[in-house]
Amino acid sequence: xxxxxxxxxxxxxxxxxxxxxxxxxxxxxxxxxxxxxxxxxxxxxxxxxxxxxxxxxxxxxxxxxxxxxxxxxxxxxxxxxxxxxxxxxxxxxxxxxxxxxxxxxxxxxxxxxxxxxxxxxxxxxxxxxxxxxxxxxxxxxxxxxxxxxxxxxxxxxxxxxxxxxxxxxxxxxxxxxxxxxxxxxxxxxxxxxxxxxxxxxxxxxxxxxxxxxxxxxxxxxxxx
Length: 224
Ligand code: DC
Description:
The protein is of the alpha/beta class. It has a single domain (about 5-220), classed as Rossmann fold, CATH 3.40.50.300. Helices cover about 50% and strands about 15% of the residues. The protein contains nine helices and eight strands. The protein has helices at about 15-25, 35-45, 55-60, 90-100, 105-120, 130-135, 150-160, 170-185, 205-220; strands at about 5-10, 30, 65-70, 75-80, 80-85, 125, 140-145, 195-200. It starts with a strand and ends with a helix. The relative contact order is 0.22. 2'-deoxycytidine-5'-monophosphate binds near residues 34, 37 and 178.
């Protein structure tokens, strides 16, 4: 039997950074489901589909070929055979991903792919609906959150480290808009699973967050 840990939460709460470190320490595979929505959004942008039209996005789905590979513990996203792991991080892809992820057919399209990893590996899977929809039987469910201001501040630092000039207010506005989209959509909205552990990282350092998550996993998972 494989062990699954679900980590959900809003954009910028530190899910992927924390989940990557935790999975390395526990020897699990880290699955980033947001990257899959981003790949669909990128495919739509590339083919100049109207992202605001559900029908148009749905009609493109059969032509979109996403493949997930794990190389040296890193998840790589391939779109039509091309590695798009960096390209999907662009800001315009973030907003487009938030839009396409509200479409039920897009979610169904990715569901089986996401579940297949949990059948084959011990996984830490992060997203918005992992504990509620994708892996409702996950051994441990964590809802990772932080105040919008602290998420915007971290995002600004991250961009500046990459040499990208960033405007704090614009980032904060985007975060608030994306939170609204993700929590108000009808299908699989972002919300803590009833049996999840809510961890607020606003006042925690990265190492403190990692330790807290590992502690919760160890306390609640007999297999580890
Ligand atoms: O985690 P992220 O920022 O890479 O996710 C991009 C978008 O995809 C986000 O706005 C919400 C959506 N998403 C989702 O709806 N369900 C998931 N399991 C993961 C991401």
